[in-house]
Amino acid sequence: MWSPFGHVLAEFFPLAVGVAISSTPLIAVLVIALGRSGAVRGAALVLGRFLGIVVVVGAFAAASELFVDLRGSDVALHVVTAVVGVGMMTIGVITWVKRPRGAIAGTPPKWLTSLTRVSAPNAFGLGFALATANVKELALGAGAGVVIGGSLTEPPPTIAAVALFAAIGIVTVSVPVVAVAVSGERIRPRLDRIRAALERSSRTITCVVLVLFGSVLVGNSFL
């Protein structure tokens, strides 16, 4: 039952890293953490993000298991994996082509600047939405779900794999929350510099992540 778990972990780990380095959730949690009661509201966002990742990956894992059962072969699953990978790469290229240039590129979206005043329940909802309503997040989650659902057929290892993927995916957004809770005002200038740097390069990060991990999925589909 658990024998393929290590192989599955090796396959979805790069995708989990891709989720973890997603720039938009990280910028959002940095903005929230730098505001009033930042640690509490930031923790709510992290919790919502964890749940959102679980929902996305779990849904695709369940669909993949059903797909394999209906077809009686994993050949079609490899095709689905390749299609998801190519889709991720395509989205990455489109994102790069349509990226803002000049002064506009360094201007953060208005919804980000308003997060300093967001409530904890709304921060939770935002974390959930960033994991379930973002094209890049859905693509990475779909890839992981296909890998997990296509290789693990029993509920315990499948649930463990989905939870582990989500846990890896929230590592980076958890760090600023813990830093603010532990260090308070001393860490704020450093976090503010990181936030500004991420805002300037968020589109580039998104493009690289999608193309890189999309190619990983395409490569895995031929193994």
Automatic annotation (TrEMBL):
InterPro entries given in the database record: Gap/Sap (IPR021315)
Highest taxon of the lineage: Bacteria
Transmembrane segments: 12-35, 42-63, 75-97, 118-139, 159-183, 204-222
A Pfam family assignment: SfLAP
UniProt keyword terms in alphabetical order: Membrane, Transmembrane, Transmembrane helix
Protein name per its UniProtKB record: Cytochrome c biogenesis protein CcdA
Organism name: Leifsonia shinshuensis
UniProt lineage: Bacteria, Bacillati, Actinomycetota, Actinomycetes, Micrococcales
